[in-house]
Design a protein that fits this description.
Elements (H helix, E strand, L loop, with lengths): L1 H23 L8 H29 L3 H25 L6 H29 L2 E2 L2 H24 L10 H25 L24 H35 L6 H23 L3 H26 L13 H18 L3 E2 L1 H19 L2
Helix pairs in contact: 1-2, 1-7, 2-3, 2-7, 2-8, 3-7, 3-8, 3-9, 4-8, 4-9, 4-10, 4-11, 5-6, 5-9, 5-10, 6-9, 8-9, 10-11
């Protein structure tokens, strides 16, 4: 009975979200506060429904494909939100892509990873993971972040922290190529690097429940697509309220990007925490670093294409404060990943870095 209720809930909510989207589309700034609250509630439920269906698809294909499915699904939401908000926001949203992608990198590498290590360390004392796969993923994150978010601050072809058109095309192609190579490495050539390991270093296959049937998987895939469409549309409807809320509490406009990243990454954070409590920290790291790679590797090419018809500048370069936080995160992450094991101390360090990022995003 519980299973039927769960399936029914995750089936109804995406369809309800589509109906609500049809009613509210194009009226974001005219909606009354109670309606905005209802949209936010349905939006949150649809995000969770999307993750549920992504997990069913992932259960069918196995690990590390499961982490990849969830990471790509959430990143599609993020990319669509950024593009739609920038397309309608004008020059005020010139730095939205940078703010959101940087927030996603900090939330995944410090928030998801830190929470997973803390939960796993508290329950099991020591968490074990495959340093080869996690190290390769971290190296990819660092390279993508540096090329896309740091280099624009220092290039001279275009005034300000922006890429020139040729530089943006190169960054987009390089990001897409690195993402493709990472996916190939994770799923084909060196899949064992991203599977859990035992105390003696032996790689073990991910333990799953019985895979769902092909029919169930196809239904979940269809509902996942519906949920993603609804999330993108409702977030667009909700975006004026987000911007007004950030302005009302006196936070910097760049905090809108942080809110978007927190919204779209919440489901992955929950999934990573559940995996850590089951002593599957490798799955948690796959989710964290995989999401960071997908966030940059898919967002930058999408923004490059969208910039063809979008007016105004495209600010990608980070400021000195953000670059210091990014550099410290990379150094700490290397020290965490290289040993292949960690305690709750490492998790706490990463969570403090996340707290520093959030505090300084409010009080730069």
């Amino acid at each position: 009975m519980n299973r039927l209720r769960r399936v029914s809930w995750t089936t109804v909510v995406p369809l309800l979200a589509l109906v609500l989207l049809a009613i509210t589309w194009g009226r974001g700034r005219e909606l009354a506060p109670p309606v905005v609250a209802v949209v936010a509630l349905v939006l949150g439920g649809t995000v969770l429904a999307a993750v549920h269906h992504a997990e069913i698809v992932a259960l069918r294909v196995g690990e590390p494909y499961g982490s990849l499915v969830l990471a790509v699904a959430v990143t599609v939401i993020e990319v669509a939100l950024i593009v739609t908000m920038m397309a309608s926001g004008g020059p005020e949203t010139a730095s939205l892509a940078r703010d959101t992608v940087f927030a996603a990198v900090m939330i995944t590498t410090n928030g998801i990873v830190g929470l997973s290590l803390l939960l796993g360390g508290r329950k099991y004392g020591m968490t074990l993971f495959n340093s080869e796969g996690s190290g390769a993923a971290l190296a990819t994150v660092a390279t993508l972040a540096t090329m896309s978010l740091v280099l624009p601050t220092f290039t001279t072809s275009q005034p300000g922290p922006e890429f020139s058109s040729p530089q943006l095309i190169f960054a987009a192609l390089a990001s897409l190529a690195l993402y493709a190579v990472f996916v190939l490495t994770q799923t084909v050539r060196h899949r064992d690097f991203f599977l859990p390991v035992t105390a003696d270093g032996t790689v073990e296959e991910e333990a799953h429940a019985e895979p769902p049937s092909g029919r169930t998987t196809l239904i979940s895939l269809g509902l996942l697509l519906v949920a993603l469409l609804a999330v993108v549309g409702l977030a667009k409807v909700e975006s004026p309220a987000i911007e007004s809320g950030v302005e009302a509490v006196g936070f910097p406009p760049s905090f809108v990007g942080v809110v978007i990243a927190l919204l779209v990454l919440l489901p992955e954070t929950l999934a990573a925490g559940r995996a850590a409590l089951k002593n599957r920290v490798q799955t948690s790291l796959n989710l964290g670093y995989g999401s960071a790679i997908a966030s940059i590797g898919l967002t930058i090419p999408a923004i490059a294409i969208a910039s063809i018809w979008m007016e105004g500048p495209l600010v990608l370069g980070l400021g000195p404060l953000q670059m210091v936080l990014l550099g410290l995160t990379v150094v700490v992450s290397v020290l965490t990943v290289v040993p292949g094991r960690a305690t709750r101390l490492q998790g706490s360090v990463h969570l403090v870095l996340l707290a520093a990022f959030l505090f300084l995003a409010i009080n730069p």
